[in-house]
Design brief:
By secondary structure, the protein is α/β, with parallel strands linked by helices. 35% of the residues lie in helices and 18% in strands.
Amino acid sequence: MRRERQDGTELHGKILGMFFLQESTRTRVGFSAAAQRLGAGVVEVQGNRHAMLSSSPERDSDTLRIMSDYADVVAVRHHDPDFVRAAARWITRPLVNCGNGNDEHPTQALIDLFAIRCHFGCISGLTVRIAGDLRSMRVAHSLVGALKRYPSVHIELASPTHLRMPESYLTGDTGRGTSIAERATFDTREADVVYVAGYPRQRVSSVAKEKARLRYRLTTTQARHMRPSALILCPLPRFDEIAQDVDALPQAGYFQQSAAGLFVRMAVLKFLLKQPR
Ligand code: CP
């Protein structure tokens, strides 16, 4: 049996194309670092859509097509959910969806599952409470989609009624004994995982809605009610969704989660580029 090289040059000679037209730190830098850790090169197009449109009239699809001709795999973040879905059909290289508008962020879900597995050793049997703007936060959509395939997971969604997770993300096959419940209040007690999905202030348009938003932040008091064995996760960036004092609690796992993202992204790239084509 041929042994695989594990010396950081497994992807030597390969190129990751990064096409990021929405802002990103973790995913963009994380994939770039992951590729370089494996010996691959990286080429990048990034920018704000509006700035790009004013400086370059080229269609996004044309730019991505060109990039994919130069690269072996392409990582894409785009504000339009349909752009990434459509590109996945016509692009000639493997495409990694790094966030398509408000729809999905699948590699973040892999990182979330990995963080949970590292902490508990399993996914099944856990109660995972996900809080925030669940209508718009793509990380929550992808995480629910991944979690519900496992058996005996208790998924609890906490959001204001007007920001409930759309039904389309809740339907479909679920693992045996897995349940999804929705709650209007954010209670941290009796949960194994508290996932703070985010609830950006920029999207809040009234005083009443700002009051509602504040109810889905994780304060130090709430965090102190958690089980000692519980785990707090957050995809980051964190604005005020998690009080800074929570960082010092033993349940705070979001920086380790972010750090583990490097290895998950390395695994994604190796999986895609080591497949015989
Ligand atoms: N978690 C995440 O997607 O972060 P970025 O937006 O910084 O990539």
